[in-house]
Amino acid sequence: MVATPSALAAAPALHPALRPLLSRPYPAVMGVLNVTPDSFSDGGQFIAPERALAQARRMIAEGADIIDIGAESTRPYGGAQPVSAEMELRRLQPVLADISALGVPVSIDSMKSEVVAWALDGGAVIANDVWGLQRDERMAELLAARNAPIIVMHNRDRADPAIDIMADISAFFARSLDIAEKAGLPRENIVLDPGIGFGKTQEQSMIALAHLSELGSFGLPLLVGASRKLFIASVVPSEPQQRLGGSIAAHLIAARHGARIIRTHDVAETVQALRVAAAIEDLR
Ligand code: HH2
């Protein structure tokens, strides 16, 4: 079952910060802004505050509906250095208020509740937790207290080629939804994300895209972030900066199978692809 845009937009209970993002015939686009030295595809490019602000402005001009700011690289198996909450805050502090003032909702990509709390105070409106409420036990309570929307992403410590990845993703989401319910975080605040490239073999990342529509059975909006990820290079060997074609292919398939938010580094090209695909589909 695919949660169609009209069904989701009509759902009376959708959190008000999510509603405008989900009411169009093509998915909303989340532009990635990494204020990190070591992110896998753009590490170091936007750590200078003036560059981060310029990149946010550029992505908004290109059609981004959300800006996702991250101050810790989460790249799995890529040797990303875990950073302290203090370091995340030191990287976010010079940019968050200015970017939040640009008129587009900001999400905070952090698995630490103290960073998310600070960011929500400083202008971010959506939490993006790559451990889906399952790493920091204070996260669900914090978001319930603030009535903030959250992206719950599937993750695993390591990939296991022997498992049924769709069953694993569904079981993970069920656990996250249980944690949310116990904390009093309403279901209508939650967006689900299969976590392309996280705790999955390259093939499992592609299986998650191919079978995305199965996750529609949760009745919640789906987000997909396939941008520049390694599974693309498993099909066509390429460096992260050379994976635009593969990213767009994956995102169009995700949109077709029910994704309502697409997370990308390449906003202009992604918006164009999604809009053209939607215009063509509309004629069927
Ligand atoms: N992917 C990355 C980071 N955060 N959040 C969600 N919800 N979904 C994703 O697929 C996702 C995410 C990895 O991409 P990037 O931010 O560019 O890299 P890094 O973690 O190295 O900063």
How would you describe this structure to a colleague?
- The protein has 284 residues and is an alpha/beta fold.
- It is built from eleven helices and eight strands.
- It has an eight-stranded parallel β-sheet with strand order 6-5-4-3-2-1-8-7.
- The longest helix has 19 residues.
- The two termini are 20 Å apart.
- The relative contact order is 0.14.
- The structure holds 6-hydroxymethylpterin-diphosphate.
- The site of 6-hydroxymethylpterin-diphosphate (HH2) has 22 residues, from strand 1 and strand 5.
What is the helix/strand order?
Answer: HEHEHHEHEHEHEHEHHEH
Secondary-structure class: alpha/beta
Q: Give the radius of gyration.
A: 17 Å
Provide the residue-averaged pLDDT: 93
Separate helix tally:
11
**Residues in β-strands, percent:** 5-15%
**How much helical structure, as a percent, in the residues?**
25-40%
- Which molecules are bound in this entry? 6-hydroxymethylpterin-diphosphate
Question: N- to C-terminal separation?
Answer: 20 Å
Largest beta-sheet characterization: 8 strands, parallel
| Strands, count | 8
Shape: globular
Order of strands in the sheet with the most strands? 6-5-4-3-2-1-8-7
Outline the low-pLDDT stretches. none
